[in-house]
Structures are given as structure tokens and as C-alpha cells.
Amino acid sequence: MLRRITSLIAATVLAVVTSVTVAATPAMAGENAMAWTYYGGTARGQAVWYHDGDSLKVCDMSADSRGIRGVVYSYNSSGGFWENEFSVTDSNSSDGCKYGSENVPDGRKVEVVVYQYWGDSTCCAESSFGVA
Fold this sequence. Notes:
This protein is of the alpha+beta class. It has one helix and eight strands; from the N terminus they run αββββββββ. It has one helix at 2-23, and strands at residues 33-39, 42-50, 55-60, 67-76, 81-90, 98-101, 109-118, 121-131. β1 and β2 form a beta hairpin. It is elongated, with a radius of gyration of 22 Å.
């Protein structure tokens, strides 16, 4: 009887430790990312990645004839390369931010890049990292 109780206690402890370990795995948790683009010391725009919903918010914050573009890349570890997932453009500072969303595989490292553009020119790219 004592041996049966000891086995039952050991099995219960193992089940609890296993469930806590699985629940605490960091790869399961996503992480947001935010990048700002500046010109002349002034913030001109931002891109914010929200892991919950795989969405990107891009905001043009300056009436300077430049638009703001945010791009989401994800790291494909099985292939060993970065994939361009999607982009969002906001070309007018007076009409609010723009949003976009595409499914990015859970657990992938993402890089959010934000930059200014006008015509065929670009400048002032910045980036930030998160997790899908």
C-alpha cells in the first residue's frame, strides 16, 4: 500500500512539473515591436507590430510631403532566411494611422522596418524586433 501511494505521489508531481514547464516555454509568447523614423531630430512616423492578431499600424506624423511605410519580415529558421510578410503605407498625416494584417507563423522572430518615402526616394529607416 505504501509503495502504491508513493508511486501515485511521484506521478502527480511529475505531471505538475511537466505542465508548469510546458506553460512557461518562452517561445509560446509573442512580443510586440515598435520602430520610429526621424528626420532633423523630429519623429516623422512610426510602425507598431502587434503579435496578437499579427497586425501592423503605421502612422505618418508630419505634414512634410513624405509618406511612411512599415514592413514586416519574419525569420524562417527552417530555411535560414528572412521573408517579407507584408507592408502598410500611410501617405497623409491628417487622416489617421493605417492598419494591415497577415498571418505570420507563431513563434517566428519578426523585424519591423519603418522608413520615409517620397517619389522614388527613401530615407531614415529604423527597425525593431518582436515575436509572432
